[in-house]
Write a structure and sequence with these properties.
- The protein is an all-beta fold and 187 residues long.
- 0% of the residues lie in helices and 53% in strands.
- It contains no helices and 15 strands.
- The termini are far apart.
Length: 187
């Protein structure tokens, strides 16, 4: 097993420096001299569905170029000390993986603030719509973790199976490149 081969060139398209081993959201591609360069930004969602790469061991300033990886296992920055077998993932406005968030699973501890991780994409979660949402419409869903509201939200969740009210407990799945809500159970 080789750990992190930072061979993918990227441009930091954010307004901030990316810290060493920072988790980055892919925002697009640009071509320089016929060579594709990944454009990245700071994570802006709860969890990851294969859409995040990891910076190498060197800080990359805003607008600068660096190298990253999308090969796993990889070293990644964590907001705290992780143990093996825990779910950690990106959250809005953080370059570090956060606990109790889907996207990655810790393989081993490398040190305080850095862990070895494998991809473990967030493809489903439980929650409740923040407002009544008609079938075929999209709304914001409060994300639940182990039965409790995390205080985090997912926007643009499509109500697929029926109309939902705010008291309905729902299952949300990543399908068709979007979040879709199914299964109604009043609570």
């Amino acid at each position: 097993m080789s750990l992190n081969r930072w061979t993918i060139p990227f441009k930091n398209d954010s307004a901030e420096s990316v810290p060493p081993f920072g988790v980055m959201r892919v925002t697009g591609i640009e071509t320089i001299g016929g060579r594709p360069i990944v454009k990245i930004g700071k994570p802006n969602t709860y969890g990851s569905q294969y859409s995040h790469y990891v910076n190498g061991p060197i800080e990359v300033a805003a607008g600068a170029y660096g190298t990253c990886t999308n090969e796993f296992p990889a070293l990644a920055a964590t907001n705290g000390t992780a143990s093996g077998g825990q779910l950690w993932g990106p959250r809005d406005d953080s370059w570090e993986l956060e606990p109790q968030t889907g996207g990655f699973i810790t393989v081993d501890l490398f040190g305080s603030g850095v862990a070895i991780v494998n991809r473990f994409p967030l493809l489903a979660f439980e929650g409740q719509y923040d407002a009544d949402t008609a079938q075929g419409a999209s709304g914001t869903v409060s994300i639940y973790w182990q039965g409790s509201d995390t205080g985090e939200n997912m926007t643009s969740v499509l109500a697929v199976s029926q109309d939902f009210v705010t008291t309905d407990k729902i299952n949300v799945s990543w399908l068709n490149q979007r979040w879709e809500a199914y299964c109604r159970e009043s609570i």
